[in-house]
Amino acid sequence: MKKKTTKRTKVKSKLNKNSLPKIIKGLKERETIETFPLDHYSYSSMVRFSTNPFMFKVRYINGDNIETAHNASSVIGKAFHVALQRYYESKDDKDKDEIKDGLEAGMQYIEEYLDNFIEFNTVVPNKQKAQEILAFSYNSYITAKADEDCELVATEELIEEEIDVEWKGQQLRMPVKLKGYLDKLIRQDGKLKIVDYKTTRSFTDPDKIDGVKIIQAVQYYFLVYAKYGEPPYSMCYEEVKTSKNRDGEPQLKEYEVIYEENELFFDFYFRFYEDMTKAINGESVFVPNLNDFYDNEVAIISYIHRLDIPEEKAKEMKKLRVDNITDLLKKKIENAGNMRKLLKTAEQKFISAKNLNYNAMKQEEKIQTKLMEHGMLIKFDSKVEGNTVDLYRYNPSIGLKMSKLKGYVADIEQVVGVSGIRILAPIPDTSLIGFEVPRKDRKFIETKPKPKGFELSIGVDIMGEDYKFDIRKAPHMLVAGATGSGKSVFLNSIIDQLSNNKDADLHLFDPKMVELAQFASKAVEYETDTEKIHEAIDDLVKEMNERYKTLSKAGVRNIQQYTGNMRYKVVVIDEFGDLIMSNIVVEKEVETGEVHARGELAGKPKMKREKTNLSSEITKNILLLAQKARACGIHLIIATQRPSTDIITGSIKANFVTKAVFKTAKEIDSRVVLDEAGAEKLLGRGDMLFSSDEGMVRLQGYLI
Predict the structure, then answer these.
(1) Based on C-alpha coordinates, what's the Rg of the chain?
(2) Distance CA 327, CA 340 (A)
């Protein structure tokens, strides 16, 4: 598949209220709504409103997300989506095996999922079984779709849009935004199709009236229409069975909902959307439980035809000449295929950016006003001008949740007109919240930093002050960032400062052979060959063990307490990813521990040929050093421009607690290193997030 970006177009015209259907025209026009507790509807929130109103209020109105354990099937389903996302991302990368890359991402997701938050059962008793099921489902899907002839438009895309489109000859505007996460969007035979895939233990009956899928199908129809300016043709549901079919039938079952053939879906959705909005505004409404085991199909048909409203019911009974609700419902179901009802959502006077003149506001006022639109009150405190970003500081109102605030980065970026904004909620060691807004006129520090012993200068903070850290307290540091982000300049600055430290020895390992070459003369060891790097790191492990014996004999716990001659060693490895992914295997003769009994070789040791995977051995030794070497004065700095899960493993992250992260190519790369998004929005050229035990701070690195 070839991925294509489609430009968005938007149709604008005035809503003709006189042409609205009777179901909408009967509503009284509401007064201006100054606050509304939700800024969007997702199809999952609409389903929760139907099935569990109490938890809907807790989760979506109050904003309280109660973490509970998920069943194993749900975790497998999430891992399946992670795997396919990585698979499609890797398809355009010629250097990657996209099938393997995707499966490894899914496996890693399950591996890192906390056991306490998985409800295992007799079918899936442990993570190993979960990974087996994932591998089977994933490979079944890839095999089934191998020959698919279509154009890939988007995958795993989050869409949040105000719906303002032309629909059936009229302008349709929904007062509450819609939000959804599309699995896949394709173009096939010239038609735009939405694809929703999932794993399942048993296939769904496609003839069953499924209210959840109706909500989802219509919601995604309007999201795609609003985002891409083109109404989709259909929604395709793809289900992968997690167990092998005994009858030999395919593991993948597909069924397609063609929108033009299912107008009742829209009837249902519009009424549900309207009733949900009424309920949130305090009106009394009744909606069907979409997951009701017995009556949900009957309830959905009744709901579409408004049989719960006495006057509507009486009129329809008279029209169809029936005297009871059962016969009326039968008639309605029989005639459902011929229904051609056009419903529109009533125009509401919600506060929006269109009613406010943001152009006349200062930046601090824009931020404050935008959050007020979402019901969050903050008061401007002060502004701090930095070299790379300006920090706008605010006092939050009582009850404002910090976790909720961080979800509005995109809204702030939209109104301020600047990307790369970072929200500090709260600003460390204060009761204030902050918004780091990138400056258009960045200031770069060209002064060469001056180290003080082991305290290294790595950049300036938002206040313009030099930021220093002690490499001995780090104890090991991970440096990550895409090409051109400032990673190499940062590394050179660190090495340059350490090279002037008379109490430290530098060991430089440079697989690319050019990045650290300028410091070769200042290092006690400089290696570029993988085999020699392996031998050097192996020697460092041996020296670490010898140092511990020395410290033990002296009766001290660490190098600081030792009074003898023991120098610090700083090991710098550039492009760690290339080193551990090279998979170089060497073969050499080693002694078996036995000797020859007879012949010319009698008494001499027996030899055998032994193969060694250098990448595996290097990884093992680096972890040993990272776990144990700090106390004996050996410190590691590793750098990579590929912060993926196969390079930055859980063990690496656990032992390299100090991280200097520059701009990453993708959000997922930022999450791999920092466990949160943000690095993908950095500005490059030394703009970094420095994370340590003291928290995370944004810095501007030096230009040397």
Answers:
(1) 31
(2) 21
Structure tokens belonging to residue 249: 């039938």
Please give the domain boundaries of the chain with CATH numbers for all domains.
270-338 (no CATH), 353-438 (3.30.980.40), 458-577+617-700 (3.40.50.300)
**586 touches 531 (CB < 8 A):** yes
Record the tokens describing residue 538, joined without a space.
């192996």
Tell me the angle at which helices 127-144 and 72-90 cross, rounded to the nearest 10 degrees: 40
> Measured between alpha carbons, how far is 223 from 160 in angstroms, rounded to an integer?
7
**Spatial separation of the C-alpha atoms in residues 643 and 661, rounded to whole Å:** 10
Whole-number Å distance between alpha carbons of 59 and 516: 52
CA 102 centroid distance within chain: 15
Residues 482, 666 contacting (CB under 8 angstroms): no
Helix, strand or coil, per DSSP, at residue 273: helix
pLDDT digits (tens, 9 = 90+) for 131-150: 999 999 999 999 998 888 89
Nearest Cα residue to 348 out of 15, 12, 42, 13 = 15
Give the global pTM.
0.48
CB atoms within 10 A of CB 376: 18
Over 70: is that where the pLDDT of 340 sits?
Answer: no
Q: Supply the pLDDT for residue 12.
A: 32
- Which range has the worst mean pLDDT, 292-306, 527-541, 607-621? 292-306
- Vertex 641 angle, CA 636 and 647, to 5°: 65
Residues 6+ apart with CB under 8 A from 285: 275, 276, 278, 279
Considering only CA atoms, which of 152, 209, 212, 214 is closest in space to residue 184? 152
Cα separation, 515 vs 528, whole angstroms = 10
Angstrom distance (rounded) from CA 568 to CA 555: 19
* Burial category of 322 from C-beta neighbours within 10 Å (exposed 0-12, middle 13-18, buried 19 and up): middle
Burial of 306 (0-12, 13-18, 19+ CB in 10 A): middle
CB atoms within 10 A of CB 586: 13
Distance CA 383, CA 376 (A): 20
| C-alpha–C-alpha distance, residues 663 and 670, integer Å | 8
DSSP tag of 60: I
Task: Summarize pLDDT for 383-436 with one digit per residue, the tens.
Answer: 998 888 899 999 987 767 888 888 888 889 988 988 888 898 888 888 899 999
pLDDT tens, 44-65? 999 999 888 888 888 888 887 7
Among 80, 103, 107, 75, smallest CA distance to 90 is for 103
The three-state secondary structure class of 42 is strand
**Cβ count within 10 A of residue 360:** 8
Q: What is the model's pLDDT at position 477? A: 92
Residue whose tokens read 């929130």: 45
Q: In this structure, are strands 466-470 and 455-460 parallel, antiparallel, or unpaired?
A: antiparallel
What are the tens digits of pLDDT across the range 351-374? 333 445 677 788 998 898 888 777
Return all residues near 126 (Cβ < 8 A) that are at least 6 apart. 120
Closest CA to 406 of 369, 436, 362: 436
- Residue 523, classified by CB atoms within 10 Å of its CB into exposed (0-12), middle (13-18) or buried (19+), is buried
Residue burial 116-141, b: 16+ Cβ < 10 Å; e: rest: eebebeeebeebeebbebbebbbebb
Mean pLDDT of 16-21: 36
